[in-house]
């Protein structure tokens, strides 16, 4: 028996009613929480008091719905837009993100966003976590009518608001009055303004497409010059205009390219960061993915950085969009130490200025004082490609009594490549589990060949020393440099016995009349 049209209509109506009821329950839950907060605020205002920062945060966190076993599917499937934060209480990055997420929830509510913000303790509720697709911490997922989409925005409150607005509302905010323009300025510190005579045509369509494609910057539009001047005072008197506004000394940047999607996005990518960007856990992904391949990093404590900031900003203006300047708190081990280790300066407490050319995987170090003149010269040479790459090195050791010579980055040329003798070089690292056994073999071989005037035994710690001609990825490694061919070292097996290694050495020695001792 086929279902009648009336029956089909009844089922559809029933589904709509159920969906409406679920959404209404969630809305009512939010309204109850907010009503309590508003009552608290009114009472505080009567007493002439302002809510403390902790109370404001508490209010923001209550706007975020807490998902559990019994309500996860209902919330996600019963609302058009739901942004879910999957977290774990023990996860430091989750703890850092939570306040930003709560603050974003407050801002989105004030903007009248239809988005529901929810959080899930995925460690405590593994079944809902599996249902939602939370596989790591923290995880942000946008659900549109029950279907998940990956989050691709930044991690500050402003970043979350901008991304959410673009995905659930309009990607461009239109300004129609001075009051709207002034209110906009109080909410957004960085934005891209577009002025068009009419909100139509190919150029405008490319602008809107760019707004939809970009995940980080708020786009704003207006048709009136006097309104545009509130946001961008030095706007050019043309029928169309694009420019970026930032809250820093280099506040305004005008776009002078073609109105093409990719070109507009490129302009945004090269100009969205401040003159000097402070690296944090929250923005690290954005910084590392910048298209600006030349990056100057300044490692300093907070006080030293404050004293250096004006100098850095002046230099950064000269190299705007060509070199990215980044400040890293030298006391932040998670952020600073991995970089400083690359320079062999992980224990440094003094200001360090280094640079990276990410197109070549090269690094550079300013080895003079960080004055404005020295930093400018350093950056000029970096731009011109005339800087010598930096290779880390331990201090030059005293090898007077050593049977196995210690080689450092600074002595590799003289002791290995320029030496007129054959050299057996052991390359090791302190954390290598098998290196100790190989080191003992090298010590015994050095003792065995002590009488040879044409053979040198040496070792280098690859974790603390670098050289462009030494490219080793496996540890330990044994390399035999023949006196007459230093450009092509021969790799010896570290799994060989002493006799086998001695036989290999004898094979390549200039004088091949060495006799193996019985003890080998």
Instruction: Describe the global form.
Output: elongated
CATH class of the largest domain: Alpha Beta
Global structural class = alpha/beta
- Architecture (CATH level 2) name of the largest domain: 3-Layer(aba) Sandwich
How many structurally independent domains?
A: 4
Placed side by side, the strands forming the largest sheet appear as 1-3-2-4-5
Using only C-alpha atoms, the radius of gyration works out to: 32 Å
C-alpha end-to-end distance? 94 Å
What can you tell me about this protein's structure?
The chain has 520 residues and is of the alpha/beta class. The chain folds into four domains: 53-166, Glutaredoxin (3-Layer(aba) Sandwich); 170-272, Glutaredoxin (3-Layer(aba) Sandwich), CATH 3.40.30.10; 276-384, Glutaredoxin (3-Layer(aba) Sandwich); 405-519, Glutaredoxin (3-Layer(aba) Sandwich). The protein is built from 17 helices and 20 strands. The chain has helices spanning 5-46, 53-63, 72-77, 92-110, 126-132, 157-168, 178-187, 202-213, 225-231, 261-271, 284-288, 302-318, 333-342, 372-384, 412-417, 435-448, 498-508; strands spanning 65-67, 81-87, 116-121, 139-144, 147-150, 172-174, 191-196, 218-222, 240-245, 252-254, 276-278, 294-300, 323-329, 352-357, 362-365, 405-406, 422-428, 455-461, 477-482, 485-492. The strands form four sheets. It has a five-stranded mixed β-sheet with strand order 1-3-2-4-5, with helices on both faces. It has a five-stranded mixed β-sheet with strand order 6-8-7-9-10, with helices on both faces. The chain has a five-stranded mixed β-sheet with strand order 11-13-12-14-15, sandwiched between helices. The radius of gyration is 32 Å and the shape is elongated. Mean pLDDT is 87; it is low at 7-42 and 511-519.
């Amino acid at each position: 028996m086929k279902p009648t049209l009336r029956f089909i209509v009844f089922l559809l109506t029933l589904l709509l009613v159920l969906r409406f009821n679920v959404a209404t329950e969630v809305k009512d839950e939010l309204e109850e929480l907010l009503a309590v907060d508003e009552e608290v605020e009114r009472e505080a205002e009567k007493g002439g008091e302002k809510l403390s920062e902790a109370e404001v945060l508490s209010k923001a966190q209550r706007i975020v719905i807490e998902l559990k076993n019994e309500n996860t599917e209902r919330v996600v499937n019963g609302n058009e837009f739901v942004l879910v934060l999957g977290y774990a209480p023990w996860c430091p990055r989750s703890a850092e993100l939570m306040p930003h997420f709560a603050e974003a929830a407050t801002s989105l509510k004030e903007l009248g966003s239809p988005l529901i913000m929810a959080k899930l303790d995925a460690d405590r509720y593994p079944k809902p976590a599996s249902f939602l697709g939370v596989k790591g911490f923290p995880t942000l997922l946008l659900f549109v009518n029950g279907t998940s989409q990956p989050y691709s925005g930044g991690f500050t409150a402003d970043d979350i608001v901008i991304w959410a607005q673009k995905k659930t509302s309009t990607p461009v905010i239109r300004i129609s009055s001075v009051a709207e323009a002034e209110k906009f300025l109080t909410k957004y510190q960085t934005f891209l303004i577009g002025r068009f005579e009419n909100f139509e045509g190919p150029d405008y369509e490319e602008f809107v497409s760019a707004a939809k494609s970009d995940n980080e910057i708020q786009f704003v539009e207006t048709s009136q010059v006097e309104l545009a001047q509130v946001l961008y005072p030095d706007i050019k008197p043309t029928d169309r205009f694009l420019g970026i506004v930032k809250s820093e000394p280099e506040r305004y940047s005008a776009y002078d390219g073609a109105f093409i999607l990719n070109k507009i996005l490129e302009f945004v990518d090269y100009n969205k960061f401040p003159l000097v960007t402070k690296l944090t856990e929250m923005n690290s992904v954005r910084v590392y993915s910048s298209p600006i391949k030349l990056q100057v990093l300044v490692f300093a404590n907070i006080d030293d950085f404050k004293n250096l900031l004006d100098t850095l900003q002046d230099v950064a203006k000269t190299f705007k969009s060509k070199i990215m300047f980044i400040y890293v708190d030298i006391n932040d081990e998670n952020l600073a130490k991995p970089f400083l280790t690359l320079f062999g300066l992980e224990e440094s407490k003094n200001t360090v200025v280094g640079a990276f050319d990410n197109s070549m995987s090269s690094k550079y170090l300013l080895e003079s004082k960080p004055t404005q003149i020295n930093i400018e010269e350093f950056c000029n040479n970096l731009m011109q490609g005339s800087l010598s790459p930096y290779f880390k090195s331990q201090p030059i050791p005293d090898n007077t009594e050593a049977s196995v010579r210690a080689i450092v980055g600074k002595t590799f040329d003289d002791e290995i490549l320029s030496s007129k003798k054959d050299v057996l070089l052991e390359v090791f690292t302190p954390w290598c589990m098998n290196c100790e056994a190989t080191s003992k073999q090298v010590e015994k071989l050095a003792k065995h060949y002590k009488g040879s005037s044409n053979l040198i035994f040496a070792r280098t710690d690859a974790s603390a020393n670098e050289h462009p001609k030494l490219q080793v990825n496996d540890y330990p490694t044994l390399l035999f440099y023949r006196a007459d061919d230093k450009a092509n070292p021969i790799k010896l097996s570290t799994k060989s016995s002493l006799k086998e290694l001695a036989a290999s050495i004898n094979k390549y020695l200039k004088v091949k009349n060495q006799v193996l001792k019985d003890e080998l």
